[in-house]
Amino acid sequence: MNTHSPDELIQIASSLQKKGYNQEEITLQLRQQGAPENLLQEIVGELKKIKLLRKRNTGFACCSIGVVLLVVGCMLTLFLYDSGASIKFAMYGLTTIGVIFSMKGLVDIMGW
Fold it and tell me: How far apart are CA 4 and CA 42, in angstroms?
């Protein structure tokens, strides 16, 4: 069996996770690479942290997009209302899309 450094094992596990392997398959591959049991738990914990960090970054981006859409929809509604034009797209379309993006971002930030 080959013995790898912990950093190499984390990189191997991360690349396997990006390929779509689940945690059991990653653990099996790492055992075949010669990783000790105590290091396996540490690597799985590190993978969970990396996945949660990526998900949170996506959540912050979605929340930002949602807030921008909500503000643009509100401002556009105010401007269109004063001019007497139809406000349906700005009021209902942009607001709905903004709320959906914001809720998806909040779910990602909370880690659900």
Answer: 15
